[in-house]
Amino acid sequence: MVHGAMRIGLVQQANSSNAEANWLKLRRNIRQCAAAGAQLVILQELHNTLYFCQTEDAANFDLAEPIPGPSTERFSQLAKDSGIVLVTSLFERRTAGIYHNTAVVIEKNGQIAGKYRKMHIPDDPNYYEKFYFTPGDLGFQPIDTSVGKLGVLVCWDQWFPEAARLMALKGAQILIYPTAIGWEVPEKDRPRQLQLDAWVVSQRGHAIANGLPVVAVNRTGHEADPSGQTAGIQFWGNSFVAGPQGEIIYQASADEEVQRVVTVHLERIEKVRRIWPFFRDRRIDQYHQLARRFID
User: Architecture of 5-281 per CATH?
Assistant: First the structure.
């Protein structure tokens, strides 16, 4: 298990319909984080393209690719050249008719350290992910890397305390959430703030309950609805890092592109869990009903 400081690069960016332009921007931003001393760089959810799940369009399955594949080859070389561990988020084509929303972790030697397939799949206006993604089947398994044991989850997973807990129980040293979340346009100011506050607070709660740092990296910018049925999504940015007591170490703005390196201290996990011994006091003999959908 790795101890000491972990320098984490966050890349919050706005995407366009030009995949090659998105790649060039990602490459530049990753290199900037590496040059600023990042050991680990985290990208937002489905960073190669626009967030295509605003509509149900079978043609979008053409965006999916195998893993390993063209994107992992590109990012693996970039991670190796930059000497960083890299957390990517890709649209995985597993076979014809089976596609996943998959985070791939690349080691600093360019090898794939592991992957996580998104487990919780939303289906809401502007977020029609169940049309595209088969729920993950790799479980909640942390990924061992040279910088530590990474509990990588994806976006909608961030609302579920069970996912964070299982990662923590399996030894994750940090919880990581590549994300694509925003406001439907238009929305009133009050509901907007409530949604954003809930998003931040829920993940800070995971940090506190598990005594772990949490990193959420979100998109920013406006993306139009291709169908024209809605005014699209204004992604709310606010990528942030919280410490193991839920304290905000860094938080980005809503509408700016960001390449930021933040330091977290993994030795604080031990210190915090000694004063807040939640794991010690869990009543594991009484939690069996959590596996039920609802308790009638």
Answer: 4-Layer Sandwich (3.60)
